């Protein structure tokens, strides 16, 4: 993606000094019922209504990573939306045993007026949001059996179509998430449940580069070159060595943690913080407070 790489190298273009951009993270599998606090789909639909009333604009995650819109520094009231783990509920409207008919994040976003004026959407391959998916099919099948309903709801059959519609880009959430449900994970000592344990070149290459290879294949080259750390764990090795020094291998433009603060011009591009629904806020009131706490910077 040479054009994007050239944009990325323009370090003078950046986020305006006073702008703080919240990056939100929702999980498609978080469906315990229909209430806001139980259901990330219901929460996002409500949150989007607030953002519209408060006159926020969505910013494409790719534009945030490139820190610019149309060759100008990012300014104004901006918010960025991401999804983790890549369950089918990101893209497909489906029945769920706890909540009845569930509208996918893709449908909810498509129907929101916020969709009509997304900052940075004109950049090549830019989408309104990004969904970070787990690459390994074997890992997804095991996680589906162990943690979901065993109904094959961690598929990659929709990735390509989704990536081409530019509402939700398909981003990289590692090879196997070092998920505890798996017998063997791609970590030299088979340490599960912690992405901090990915602290060597071979492990990083398998978890990030090999995952990107797979995403590129499945999406026909339309994957979004952004990474989200499983569990939000940004290891020192990945942030300070692997990502900055091996860009040709991993081909990412930015990486997201879950640090619970907004992105500013001082944020490390390899550890951009996010707020997680159900962790950093649990209600419409807490969501509004999160934004009011940003004060006049946003
Ligand atoms: Zn995850």
How does this structure look, described?
The chain has 298 residues and is an alpha/beta fold. It has a single domain, classed as TIM Barrel, CATH 3.20.20.370. It has ten helices and ten strands. The strands form three sheets. Strands 1, 2, 3, 6, 7 and 10 form a six-stranded parallel sheet that branches. Strands 4-5 form a two-stranded antiparallel ribbon. A two-stranded parallel ribbon has the order 8-9. β4 and β5 form a beta hairpin. The chain is globular, with a radius of gyration of 18 Å. The two termini are 31 Å apart. About 2% of the residues have low confidence. Zinc ion binds next to β3.
Structure keywords:
binds zinc ion, two-stranded antiparallel ribbon, 6-stranded parallel β-sheet, single chain, 298 residues, 10 helices
Number of structurally distinct domains: 1
Please mark out the parts with pLDDT under 50 across 5 or more consecutive residues, or reply none.
7-13
Mean pLDDT: 92
> Radius of gyration, Cα only, in angstroms?
18 Å
In helices, the fraction of residues equals 25-40%
Topology (elements, then pairings):
Blueprint: H1 2-9, E1 23-27, H2 40-53, E2 57-58, H3 61-66, E3 78-85, E4 94-96, E5 100-102, H4 105-111, E6 129-133, H5 137-147, H6 159-165, E7 168-172, H7 201-219, E8 226-228, H8 236-245, H9 247-250, E9 254-256, E10 275-276, H10 284-292
Parallel strand pairs: 1-3, 1-10, 2-3, 3-6, 6-7, 8-9
Antiparallel strand pairs: 4-5
The chain binds zinc ion.
Zinc ion binds next to strand 3.
């Amino acid at each position: 993606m040479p054009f994007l790489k050239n944009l990325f190298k323009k370090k003078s273009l950046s986020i305006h000094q006073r702008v703080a951009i919240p990056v939100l993270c929702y999980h498609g599998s978080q469906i315990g019922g229909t209430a806001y606090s139980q259901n990330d789909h219901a929460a996002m639909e409500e949150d989007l209504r607030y953002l519209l009333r408060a006159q926020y604009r969505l910013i494409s995650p790719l534009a945030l990573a490139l820190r610019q819109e149309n060759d100008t520094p990012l300014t104004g009231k901006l918010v960025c939306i991401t999804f983790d783990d890549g369950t089918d509920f990101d893209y497909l409207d489906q029945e769920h045993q706890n909540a009845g008919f569930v509208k996918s994040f893709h449908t909810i976003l498509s129907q929101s007026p916020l969709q009509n004026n997304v900052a940075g959407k004109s950049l090549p391959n830019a989408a309104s949001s990004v969904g970070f998916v787990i690459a390994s099919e074997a890992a997804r099948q095991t996680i589906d059996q162990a943690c979901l309903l065993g109904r094959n709801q961690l598929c990659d059959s929709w990735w390509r179509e989704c990536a081409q519609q530019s509402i939700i880009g398909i981003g990289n959430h590692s090879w196997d998430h070092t998920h505890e449900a798996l017998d063997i994970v791609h970590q030299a000592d088979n340490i599960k449940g912690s992405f901090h344990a990915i602290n060597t070149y071979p492990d990083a290459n398998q978890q990030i580069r090999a995952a990107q290879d797979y995403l590129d294949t499945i999406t026909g080259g339309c994957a979004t070159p952004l990474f989200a750390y499983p569990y939000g764990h940004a290891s020192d090795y990945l942030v300070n060595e692997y990502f900055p020094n091996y860009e040709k291998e991993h081909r990412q433009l930015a990486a997201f943690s879950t640090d619970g603060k907004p992105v500013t011009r001082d944020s490390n591009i390899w550890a951009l913080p996010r707020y997680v629904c159900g962790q950093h806020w649990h209600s419409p009131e807490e969501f509004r407070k999160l934004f009011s706490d940003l004060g006049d910077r946003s």
